[in-house]
UniProtKB/TrEMBL annotation:
Gene3D superfamilies: 6.10.250.1580. Belongs to the ATPase B chain family. This is ATP synthase subunit b. F-type ATPases have 2 components, F(1) - the catalytic core - and F(0) - the membrane proton channel. F(1) has five subunits: alpha(3), beta(3), gamma(1), delta(1), epsilon(1). F(0) has three main subunits: a(1), b(2) and c(10-14). The alpha and beta chains form an alternating ring which encloses part of the gamma chain. F(1) is attached to F(0) by a central stalk formed by the gamma and epsilon chains, while a peripheral stalk is formed by the delta and b chains. F(1)F(0) ATP synthase produces ATP from ADP in the presence of a proton or sodium gradient. F-type ATPases consist of two structural domains, F(1) containing the extramembraneous catalytic core and F(0) containing the membrane proton channel, linked together by a central stalk and a peripheral stalk. During catalysis, ATP synthesis in the catalytic domain of F(1) is coupled via a rotary mechanism of the central stalk subunits to proton translocation. Residues 63-138 form a coiled coil. Keywords: ATP synthesis, Cell membrane, CF(0), Coiled coil, Hydrogen ion transport, Ion transport, Membrane, Transmembrane, Transmembrane helix, Transport. The chain crosses the membrane at residues 23-42. InterPro entries: ATP_synth_B-like_membr_sf, ATP_synth_b/b'su_bac/chlpt, ATP_synth_F0_bsu_bac, ATP_synthase_B_chain. It is found in: Cell membrane; Endomembrane system. It comes from Planococcus koreensis. It is a single-pass membrane protein. One of its GO terms (cellular component) is endomembrane system. One of its GO terms (molecular function) is proton-transporting ATP synthase activity, rotational mechanism.
């Protein structure tokens, strides 16, 4: 009824005077409406807004943490990659050094083998020369004996002939 009077009173034509009761009633209705809005609309709305704000802040913090973790992992990966490059360079350098050492060992071994083979060849040549000289001496002794026996037309003992030929050969060797 009170509300009817407010509504009807405004349409009665008494609008030129402000009614104090109408103002108070309007104010009370406004305050009740404001209280109800605050309790049932504004409070839950602000709670939802606060939850949303907290959720967004949490997601921003999570994203920042993820970014920092990613940056940290990236730096670790770069560090590991740099370390791997250094290790690879060390391996290459060691391989080069080892290759140079192996090359020097092979060259030294080859030179030593060459010297050994040369000395062996020189020794073999000397042995063959001595054998050839001995064979030539024997042949010379035999031919000398034959020539001497024909010249003298007599036979000398083989022992005397050998001694004579050896002396002749020795004297011929001293002349050379």
């Amino acid at each position: 009824m009170f509300f009817d009077h407010l509504v009807l009173g405004a349409t009665d034509g008494h609008a030129e005077f402000l009614n104090g009761g109408d103002i108070i009633a309007t104010l009370v209705v406004f305050l009740v409406l404001l209280f109800l809005l605050k309790k049932f609309a504004w409070g839950p709305l602000m709670g939802i807004m606060q939850q949303r704000e907290d959720l967004i802040a949490s997601e921003i913090e999570t994203a920042e943490n993820s970014r920092q973790e990613s940056a940290k992992l990236l730096e670790e990966q770069r560090s590991l990659l740099k370390e791997a490059r250094v290790q690879a360079q060390e391996i290459v350098e060691n391989a080069k050094k080892q290759g140079e050492v192996s090359r020097q060992d092979i060259i030294t071994t080859a030179r030593a083998e060459s010297v050994r083979m040369k000395e062996s060849a020189v020794q073999e040549i000397a042995n063959e020369k001595d054998k050839a000289m001995a064979a030539v001496r024997e042949e010379v002794v035999a031919l000398s004996l034959l020539a001497a026996s024909k010249v003298l037309n007599k036979e000398i003992s083989e022992e005397d002939n050998r001694q004579l030929i050896n002396e002749t050969i020795a004297k011929a060797g001293e002349v050379q």
